[in-house]
Amino acid sequence: MVLLRRKTTASKKASVAIEAPPAQCFWVHNGPVLKNIAELRLALERMNDAQFAHHVNSGKNDFTKWIVDVLHLTTLAHDLHKAMTRKAAIKVLEKHLR
């Protein structure tokens, strides 16, 4: 049996390592303070639907705004903007973190 490893680009590795400066961390409504996308993925798993709806609804998407404005990951933000449920958002982040 041969196991194939998926190629990881340098830019993908770099984007996973990006952390927000302390003053620009993301404060989840009634939840944790996040400094990177790995922490966002974990927070999405743990937050309830009301917390998610506070940040993502038909009028706004705080997560994508933070990812663009602070982490400067426009491709990830574009993909995440389409995710209107917690489960969909988790899948987008998992794909990006691989």
Q: Please write the string of helix (H) and strand (E) elements.
A: HEEHHEEHHH
Mean pLDDT: 88
Strand runs, count = 4
Distance between the termini: 22 Å
Low-confidence stretches: 1-11
Radius of gyration (CA) equals 14 Å
How would you describe the shape?
globular
Give the helix/strand class. Answer: mainly alpha
What assembly state would you assign to the polypeptide chains in this entry? single chain
Biggest β-sheet: strands ordered side by side in the sheet: 1-2
Helix segment tally: 6
State the share of residues found in helices, binned by percent. Answer: 40-55%
* Beta-strand residue fraction: 5-15%
Biggest sheet statistics:
2 strands, antiparallel
3D architecture notes:
The chain has helices at 10-17, 37-46, 49-55, 62-69, 74-81, 86-97, and strands at residues 26-27, 33-34, 56-57, 60-61. The longest helix has 12 residues, at 86-97. The chain is built from 6 helices and 4 strands. The two termini are 22 Å apart. 54% of the residues lie in helices and 8% in strands. The radius of gyration is 14 Å and the shape is globular. A hairpin with a 5-residue loop joins strand 1 and strand 2 (33-34). The strands form 2 sheets. Strands 1-2 form a two-stranded antiparallel ribbon. It has a two-stranded antiparallel ribbon with strand order 3-4. It has 98 residues and is mainly alpha-helical.
